[in-house]
Write a structure and sequence with these properties.
Elements lengths: L6 H6 L20 H7 L5 H5 L2 H15 L3 E3 L6 H5 L4 E4 L3 E4 L16 H4 L1 H13 L5 E7 L1 H10 L7 H9 L1 H25 L3 E6 L7 H22 L5 E5 L6 H8 L3 E3 L6 H8 L5 E5 L1 H6 L1 H14 L5 E5 L9 H11 L6
Parallel strand pairs: 1-4, 4-5, 5-6, 6-7, 7-8, 8-9
Antiparallel strand pairs: 2-3
Helix pairs in contact: 4-7, 8-9, 8-10, 9-10, 10-11, 11-12, 15-16
This protein binds coproporphyrinogen III.
């Protein structure tokens, strides 16, 4: 572990740093005036993700302003369904809307063969950003996990009860399994291409891991993740995979022990003592400040960050939020956060 290694990579390799490396999920986004300025130029969010010059600029914006230890590729987990040919639109204020698929026969409508080639602009963004980053800042690539991507593909967007995707998964193991298997393969190729283009770490976002009973969690979250991690490891043994099975509760432990991920992203509900005593002895953890505390600021933010530094900071740890930055977050609070994370910890 050379001293010249980037702080994020040192923490991922198991080193405990005196001030934690940090980055924020959704660090590029509507809370930044410079993001809104670029966003206003392009009608369609997908077009933004498919324009290397703009996407590279958006990736760099938060790093330029705050000096995080990592940049995360500006893109979206729904670029895979989009590349598969599923109709996708982002409507102002209501999130993504997809033309839903709901059965095995619908898979024939998707173009699994040409999907990765259609994502070429994303890889071009990676190459541009990697060239623009300083020697201490790592570049993170990402994909949604097959389960989470499938929830959007089958529900056609956000959902309250996930009854469509769950009923397909419960009713038709083979048919739904075929969708998951195809997503596993494409996710591996997609992440492999990001790594070849210059990302140094990848994160798998499993935003909806936490809605499944244990047997389904094992089948649709642990299994596919294990398979993606193993395939990436065989091609790119140096590239750490961070898993983020949001809201997995006590199933975090099985995920950590069974998937092979190099580090684990924690949502805000994971208790600090559990993270420190059960998870951190096994792998580095990442998280898990409540994004609302970053929005609120003041003493509440300061106390929470200091508390995390005292507890998780004694073992390998990457500071992050437990979920994405809220658009209502005052940009100056991120400046305050950067100061709270650097230098010695307040008693
Ligand atoms: O973290 C980053 O800064 C990198 C870029 C990034 C985006 N989305 C940009 C984005 C990443 C890593 C994501 C991941 C993502 N996308 C997830 C997993 C993490 C999570 O939040 O649970 C999910 C579920 C999505 C799907 C998605 N994309 C939704 C539900 C929405 C609409 C809700 C919202 O916040 O607007 C998006 C849109 C989106 N993705 C925006 C950004 C900056 C907002 C687009 C806009 O400008 O209107």
């Amino acid at each position: 572990m050379g001293l010249s290694m980037k702080p994020l990579l040192r923490a991922l390799a198991g080193e405990t740093l005196s001030s934690p490396p940090w980055w924020l999920m959704r660090q590029a986004g509507r809370y930044l005036p410079e993001y809104r300025q670029v966003r206003a130029k392009v009608r369609d969010f997908i077009e933004l993700c498919s324009s290397p010059a703009l996407a590279a600029e958006l990736t760099m914006q938060p790093v330029r302003r705050y000096g995080m230890d990592a940049a995360i590729l500006f893109s979206d987990i729904l670029m895979i369904p989009h590349a598969l040919g599923q109709r996708l639109a982002f409507h102002e204020g209501e999130g993504p809307v997809l033309e839903a698929i709901e059965s095995h026969s619908d898979l024939a409508r998707l173009d699994f063969d040409r999907a990765i080639a259609r994502l070429e602009p994303v890889f071009e963004t990676v190459t541009r950003v990697r060239g623009a980053l300083g020697t201490q800042t790592a570049l993170i690539g990402f994909a949604g996990s097959p389960w989470t991507v499938a929830t959007y593909m089958v529900e056609g967007g956000a959902s309250r009860d996930f009854r469509r995707v769950k009923s397909w998964a419960y009713r038709d193991l083979g048919g739904f399994g075929a969708l998951i298997e195809l997503l596993v393969e494409r996710t591996v190729e997609y992440l492999a291409a990001q790594i070849s283009a210059g990302v140094e770490v990848v994160q798998l976002f499993d935003s909806w891991a936490g809605i499944l009973p244990e047997a389904a969690f094992e089948r649709w979250v642990i299994g596919p993740t294990q398979s993606i991690v193993a395939k990436l490891k065989s091609k790119f043994p140096e590239c750490p995979v961070i898993g983020f099975p949001r809201s997995a509760g006590i199933l975090y432990e099985r995920y950590v022990l069974e998937t092979g991920v190099a580090a684990i992203g924690l949502d805000p509900t994971v208790p600090t003592d559990y993270a420190r005593n059960v998870l951190q002895p096994v792998i580095p953890v990442q998280g898990n400040l409540d994004p609302v505390l970053l929005m609120v600021g003041g003493a509440a933010l300061e106390d929470a960050v200091t508390g995390l530094r005292h507890s998780l900071g004694q073992r390998p740890w990457i500071f992050n939020l437990g979920h994405g930055v809220l658009p209502q977050t005052p940009p100056e609070n991120v400046e305050i956060l950067a100061r709270l994370l650097s230098g010695p910890i307040a008693p």
